[in-house]
Amino acid sequence: MREPRKDFQPLLAKEAPPEVERMGLTWLMAAAITTVVLWQVPGGDYILYPFTILATWFHEIAHGLMAMLLGGDFRQLLIFPNGSGVAIYSYSGGFFLGSIGRALVAAAGPMGPPIAGAILILASRSFKTASWSLKILGGFLLLSTAIWVRSLFGLVAIPLLGLIIVGIGFKAPRWVQGFAIQFLGVQACISTYHQLNYLFSHSTGSLGLSDTAQIQQELFLPYWFWGALMAIASGLLLVQSLRIAYRSA
Predict the structure, then answer these.
(1) Each residue of 124-162: pLDDT tens digit?
(2) What is the distance in angstroms between the CA of the first residue and the CA of the last residue of the chain?
(3) DSSP codes of every residue in 12-50
């Protein structure tokens, strides 16, 4: 009988029968629900603090990378202890696509975490891609620190997260790597719902307009419409990525 390929197998396929794989999905969804609950209770943010910082990094790095993609200059990334962040970029010559380009840069921040989360969940379909995804994510955290991160807190927190994730990618058992990449993916996807107030806010105080208000400024329809659209898109990305990741090979 032909031996199955070893470089690509569904998560947990070697260690457990399909019943345990489905149980893994159940526990993963339970973790997602627990996360949402913890965000609403006193002290819950402390437990989820590392994931909050990672989600902020996804958010701000997405702003900066989209600005670069559209012809701008990504200058600095600032991460603060309260979980907030700022991507500093310039577009003196104007973004490609004009108003649409500026709207895309604004939208990239809120959509950065769920898109990255969906990619991480899909990467868990094989042990090989799960392991490489952890190494790439951790490596990019370290690289971004050297190139863009300039706040004191960010210079400590971001490389620390990067080293932990790289360590899991190199040293942890395969089932830990698979669960870790899925869990990080789910946390990134549902981080959108941690910032619902932000999505449905017109202003961020001293920082000026919110991302959704910036989209409103460049395009038609009110900021709350764009906030609702991104919240729905984040949920769809989570559900579809989990569905594909657990589809039978």
Answers:
(1) 888 899 999 999 999 999 999 999 999 999 999 999 999
(2) 19
(3) TTTTS-HHHHHHHHHHHHHHHHHHHHHHHSTTHHHHTHH
Q: Any idea which residue has 């863009």 for tokens?
A: 148
Confirm if 190 and 172 have CB atoms less than 8 A apart. Answer: no
Residue 139 burial (C-beta neighbours within 10 Å; 0-12, 13-18, 19+): middle
Gap between the Cα atoms of 33 and 2, Å rounded: 42
Q: Which of 4, 8, 3, 12 is nearest to 246 (CA)?
A: 12
Give the C-alpha separation, 164 to 146, whole Å: 17
- CA 239, CA 186: separation in Å to the nearest integer? 10
Amino acid letter for position 216? Q
Query: Residue 28's closest CA among 132, 133, 121?
Result: 121
Nearest-angstrom CA–CA distance, 68 and 145? 17
Q: Measured between alpha carbons, how far is 168 from 109 in angstroms, rounded to an integer?
A: 27
